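Key result, reporting period 2: structure in, sequence out.
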């Protein structure tokens, strides 16, 4: 039996959270912000040397600026997150 992709890769929620932010930063040319926050928090810009907990700290600190810059560069969140249900109600 062939293994499915979900069995092939094992990521923690912390890793996935950082990877989502990293992808957005890469897609919208915001990677220098990750380097900046890495330097600010850890006195180096080697993101690959960070522990899982340090990656979470980095993501929490950089997230607001990365979202802001990505929005300026054309990122648009999925509309369903803000439109509510089919009747237009938020709850």
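The corresponding designed sequence is given below.
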């Amino acid at each position: 039996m062939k293994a499915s992709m979900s069995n092939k890769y094992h990521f923690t929620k912390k890793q996935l959270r950082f990877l989502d932010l990293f992808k957005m930063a890469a897609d919208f040319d915001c990677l220098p912000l990750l380097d900046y926050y890495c330097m600010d928090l850890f006195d180096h810009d080697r993101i690959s040397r960070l522990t899982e907990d340090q990656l979470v700290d980095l993501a929490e600190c950089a997230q607001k600026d990365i979202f802001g810059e990505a929005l300026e560069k054309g990122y648009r969140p999925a509309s369903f997150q803000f439109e509510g249900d089919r009747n237009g109600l938020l709850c």
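The chain is about 60% helix and 0% strand. The first helix runs from residue 5 to 8. This case is discussed further under Risks and Mitigation.
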